[in-house]
């Protein structure tokens, strides 16, 4: 064993001890379990978006009543959770009434509505970085605290055309570049299963409102796990689509070049797996045809591969035993229910996930310091760090540290950068060859259940379990697998080859049937 290998082993052991210490320290700081979201009293809140759409267009429910149910739920939960940061409740009510009037008029048949406006009258939410006309568009940046969108993002336009009604915006991390949703504009969002825990980021407010049943469905975006991690921490489903299928137009901050745009994806966040496919079909627009979403998927013809850890990445937490147990449960289910033998893998390149993501994200100007300056001029990092320590900065420490990290070390075009781009390319080909057109890969979404607030500062690279699939540009779906012994959501992600999103979504539906999917709070109805 060489000197470098000895150092690597020592550092891994040191981080493991460090990880255990800080986990126990935060447990002592927060003490007992925090508050949980209130019980659900209205059974409408438990319905899938697909079911609500069907009942609304067939006159079994009114859009106005459904919209009011979700608005009331937001009022009931948001004081505890702080996940909703702006709303258009009155306009939403008017649009819901207009949908009801259209249906009552009988001028359009239910069949035609199902085809032309498949989500007519269904209320939804989206994160505060995806533009909704006349609503806040801050992305958690203080300089944008009063900015409102002048028009809808491309995905919002498509959803409105499908009849869906935006009702509220949800919280994000500052400039959407951290995995806890906390910013100087709207503050911190709390986990609905334990208010002392994080909701993830950057679509953390959206994952939270879905788990709390405050919205029929949500839309998030994902450049390093920003859909899948919040879905993991909040126990709901979320899908990062294949590259360039869903338009990223209307996000702030935008990707700085086409390659970074390929890492970024807008996708659905839902409580019920049946909603993933129809929503993806809507937001993909004319590109939906390339996904063949209507093509039936025969599970028995899918090749299943799985891996329950990254094989030992430096400075990344070990996968909790309860999460590892999910993989054996899935393997047993596949064999018993479908006679499918899932193949366990040990792909060692996953140990380089964080480095591949970090270096592939070094896309060049504008830098993160310029984005923190709202693209007007870069902030003075030294000055802002001094202000932060004095308690008077308008930025989070994480955002400043991100900008500092970007400005240090090897940059875009360096030898190290080229090394990790080449490694990514080789790994991408390896994954594509393994998956083919009939394979899926099941992998941890995150190594631990939701950490305590601020705990991610001491384990910043745990996002690498999701981030690797952004730079590999493969579609991925988070699938909830129930609650841990401590009552926190756990789950896995399933990955397929480019444009094979339908395989991920089929597996999500299957595992929901087998293991239950989203676990709602107490129901008192």
From TrEMBL:
Entry superkingdom:
Eukaryota
Gene Ontology terms, MF aspect? hydrolase activity
The record's listing under Gene3D superfamilies reads: Amidase signature (AS) domain
Keyword Hydrolase applies = yes
Amidase domain location? 65-505
Write down the InterPro entries for this protein, in alphabetical order. Answer: Amidase_dom, AS_sf, FAAH2
Q: Which UniProt keywords apply?
A: Hydrolase
SUPFAM superfamilies noted in UniProt:
Amidase signature (AS) enzymes
Task: State if Nucleotide-binding is listed as a keyword.
Answer: no
- Pfam hit, one: Amidase
Q: What PANTHER family does the annotation carry? A: FATTY-ACID AMIDE HYDROLASE, FATTY-ACID AMIDE HYDROLASE 2
Q: What is this protein called?
A: Fatty-acid amide hydrolase 2
What lineage does UniProt assign to this protein's organism?
Eukaryota, Metazoa, Ecdysozoa, Arthropoda, Hexapoda
């Amino acid at each position: 064993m060489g000197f470098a290998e000895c150092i690597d082993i020592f550092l891994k052991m040191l981080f493991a001890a460090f990880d255990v210490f800080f986990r126990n320290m935060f447990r002592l700081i927060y003490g007992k379990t925090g508050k949980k979201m209130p019980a659900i009293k209205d059974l409408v809140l438990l319905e899938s978006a697909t079911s609500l759409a069907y009942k609304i267009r067939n006159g079994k429910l009114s859009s106005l009543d459904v919209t009011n149910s979700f608005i009331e739920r937001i009022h009931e939960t948001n004081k505890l959770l702080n996940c909703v940061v702006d709303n258009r409740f009155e306009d939403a009510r008017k649009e819901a009434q207009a949908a009801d009037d259209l249906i009552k008029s009988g001028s359009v048949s239910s069949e035609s509505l199902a085809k032309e406006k498949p989500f007519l009258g269904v209320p939804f939410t989206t994160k505060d970085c995806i533009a909704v006309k006349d609503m806040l568009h801050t992305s958690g940046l203080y300089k944008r605290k009063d900015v409102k969108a002048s028009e809808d993002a491309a995905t919002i336009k498509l959803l409105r055309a499908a009849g869906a009604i935006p009702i509220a915006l949800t919280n994000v991390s500052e400039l959407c570049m951290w995995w806890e949703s906390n910013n100087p504009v709207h503050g911190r969002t709390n986990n609905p299963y334990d208010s002392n825990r994080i909701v993830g980021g950057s679509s953390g407010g959206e994952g939270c409102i879905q788990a709390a049943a405050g919205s029929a469905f949500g839309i998030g975006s994902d450049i390093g796990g920003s859909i899948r991690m919040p879905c993991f921490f909040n126990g709901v489903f979320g899908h990062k689509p294949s590259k360039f299928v869903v338009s990223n137009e209307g996000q702030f901050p935008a990707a700085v070049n086409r390659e970074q745009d390929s890492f970024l994806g807008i996708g659905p966040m839902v409580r019920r797996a049946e909603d993933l496919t129809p929503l993806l079909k809507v937001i993909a627009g004319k590109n939906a045809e390339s996904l063949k979403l209507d093509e039936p998927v025969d599970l028995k013809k899918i090749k299943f591969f799985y891996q329950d850890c990254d094989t030992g990445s430096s400075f990344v937490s070990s996968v909790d035993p309860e999460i590892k147990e999910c993989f054996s449960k899935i393997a047993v289910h596949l064999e018993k229910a479908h006679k499918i033998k899932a193949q366990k893998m040990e792909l060692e390149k996953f140990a380089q996930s964080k480095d591949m993501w970090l270096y592939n994200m070094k896309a060049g100007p504008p830098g993160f310091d310029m984005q923190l300056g709202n693209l007007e001029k870069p902030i003075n990092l030294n000055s802002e760090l001094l202000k932060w320590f004095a308690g008077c900065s308008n930025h989070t420490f994480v955002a400043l540290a991100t900008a500092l990290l970007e400005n240090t070390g090897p940059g875009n075009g360096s030898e190290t950068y080229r090394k990790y781009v080449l490694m990514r390319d080789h790994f991408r080909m390896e994954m594509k060859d393994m998956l083919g057109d009939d394979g899926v890969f099941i992998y941890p979404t995150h190594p631990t259940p939701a950490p305590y607030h601020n705990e991610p500062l001491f384990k910043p690279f745990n996002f690498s379990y999701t981030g690797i699939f952004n730079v590999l540009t493969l579609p991925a779906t988070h699938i909830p697998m129930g609650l841990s012994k401590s009552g926190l959501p756990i789950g896995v992600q399933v990955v397929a080859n480019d444009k094979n999103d339908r395989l991920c979504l089929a597996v999500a539906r299957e595992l929901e049937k087998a293991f239950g999917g989203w676990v709602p709070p107490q129901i008192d109805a």
